[in-house]
Amino acid sequence: MTTAASTPKGERRRAALVEAAAMLLVEGGFDAIRHRAVAERAGLPLASTTYYFDSLDELVTAAVEHHARSEVATGHQRLDELATRNRGAQAQVDLVLDMLLGPVREDREADAEAVLLRYERLVATGRRPYLRPLMRTLSVEFNALLSEIFARSGTPVDATELERLIALVDGAVVNALIAVDPDPRAAATRMLLAALS
């Protein structure tokens, strides 16, 4: 990171650019993060992206980290709420799937599109070697959250079982996404509920 963000104004501007880039990432994947698009979304001059970030890769990395940490924080908040309410299997599965597939959208087609974009983004991450160290760190944090969700819901799982359950969800989602009328969340829900019963 450049030293340009060392003032409060600089920190606010840098944060606005990161948040704008994270929103573009979710909406359109890595190709949507361009200097001009990020600056426009943040309402800042185009030059600000190169002033606060040494490269586009650095901006992309900051966007990925911001989005992932936001999701993990939301997951912890929802887990705390779950602990004080119904901890039934459906509530547990809903929270796990929100972590794996993103928050549910009311419209089924919009939800399927959002899940597709998420999986495209995850696959595209593998083509960006500069993201690998961050993704390893985030994966550990994310898996710890998932393990905590299962444990607090009364069905603790070890690392091997967690990996199996994630793979089960991924397979159900991919199979559903290639269907004529995709509903990946419903397919993943059925598979996960069956696996946990």
C-alpha end-to-end distance: 48 Å
Helix and strand pattern: HHHHHHHHH
Strand content bin: under 5%
Number of helices: 9
Structural class: mainly alpha
Work out the number of β strands.
Answer: 0
Question: What's the main sheet like?
Answer: none
- The 3D shape can be described as globular
Set out the fold topology.
Blueprint: H1 8-28, H2 35-42, H3 47-52, H4 56-84, H5 89-101, H6 108-125, H7 132-152, H8 159-177, H9 184-196
Question: Keywords, please?
Answer:
197 residues, mainly alpha, 9 helices, globular
What does this protein look like?
The protein is mainly α. It contains nine helices and no strands. The chain has helices spanning 8-28, 35-42, 47-52, 56-84, 89-101, 108-125, 132-152, 159-177, 184-196. Helix 1 (8-28) packs across helix 6 (108-125). The radius of gyration is 18 Å and the shape is globular. The termini are far apart. The mean pLDDT is 91.
